[in-house]
Amino acid sequence: MKFEIYFCGSIRAGRQDAEIYRRIISKLKKYGTVLTEFVGTNDDSKEGESHTKERELSDSEIHERDIRLLEQCEALVAEVTQPSLGVGYEVGRAVVLKKPILCLFRPSCGKILSALIRGIHNEEDIIIKDYKESDLDDTLQEFFEKVQKMQEKNKK
Amino acid sequence: MKFEIYFCGSIRAGRQDAEIYRRIISKLKKYGTVLTEFVGTNDDSKEGESHTKERELSDSEIHERDIRLLEQCEALVAEVTQPSLGVGYEVGRAVVLKKPILCLFRPSCGKILSALIRGIHNEEDIIIKDYKESDLDDTLQEFFEKVQKMQEKNKK
Ligand SMILES: [Ca+2]
């Protein structure tokens, strides 16, 4: 499988999960190209600004770039444990673009996932999944097999 | 002015700002009907689930109701200081629906606003505003005058 994948995780709302983002991104590479690899770049800056290039772009340019990548992608994978406006925004835009969506939530964190994210699950092309890291391989495999099947179906 | 207004604030991601939401909602009533008044309802529950009716709906029903109200509204006002997936999601959907948007952010909180929210500001129908509570009356007045003018222009 060789998909173009849009990964979302919290940047300015908190980098507590940056290590997990990095590990998910590294697993996603088995399934294709991660268009937003910068989300995983670990950093020491207090603000959570991740990498040099990000700092050189204006917010409006970041938005333009991300929407362009979102339109380009064949699937969106979001880690949604850390509440983030940006991640919510990206998921909202991806729903309208009818992209296959996988949202990954760790209940072990004790947080409660937004009803608007939980509520878009449809067991088809939008999957909201409670996970622990040891489940990730199976969850990703299952999701991308679905994406594959949907693409084959659409080609017919 | 008598607009149908969609107000967004964090629910499950944290109710620290619930009192501010309530005060904003009470100011919004000067400009019309707030379709999502339940966002301001103060509560004592740890989870931040605000009111009885909300608790009776499934997440999928909450999502359906909110999208219906979003389509119905003439303007969206969001308090975006507390990072929230749900608020980000609503803003993303509202952008696609071409609704006039006002996002209110309090820099005094020491947080940094998402680039994807900051980046949609266009000085026209999408306004991202750094505010303190004493500015609110002027900010809302200015925004709804813009909405009014846009509606009049569209009628012509
Ligand atoms: Ca929420």
Automatic annotation (TrEMBL), chains A, B:
EC identifiers of the protein: 3.2.2.-
Keyword Iron-sulfur: no
The protein's name: Putative 2'-deoxynucleoside 5'-phosphate N-hydrolase 1
Species, as recorded: Limulus polyphemus
EC supergroup of this enzyme: hydrolase
Catalytic activity: 5-hydroxymethyl-dUMP + H2O = 5-hydroxymethyluracil + 2-deoxy-D-ribose 5-phosphate; a purine 2'-deoxyribonucleoside 5'-phosphate + H2O = a purine nucleobase + 2-deoxy-D-ribose 5-phosphate; a pyrimidine 2'-deoxyribonucleoside 5'-phosphate + H2O = a pyrimidine nucleobase + 2-deoxy-D-ribose 5-phosphate
InterPro entries: 2'-dNMP_N-hydrolase, DNPH1, Nucleoside_deoxyribTrfase
Residues reported in the UniProt entry to bind substrate: 6-12, 21, 90, 114-116
Residue spans of biased composition, Basic and acidic residues class: 43-61
Main function: Catalyzes the cleavage of the N-glycosidic bond of deoxyribonucleoside 5'-monophosphates to yield deoxyribose 5-phosphate and a purine or pyrimidine base.
Keywords, ordered alphabetically: Cytoplasm, Glycosidase, Hydrolase, Nucleotide metabolism, Nucleus
Family membership noted in the UniProt record: Belongs to the 2'-deoxynucleoside 5'-phosphate N-hydrolase 1 family.
Region (Disordered): 42-61
Record-linked Pfam families: Nuc_deoxyrib_tr
Subcellular location: Cytoplasm; Nucleus
Superkingdom assignment: Eukaryota
Subunit structure, interactors included: Monomer and homodimer.
Major place of residence: cytoplasm
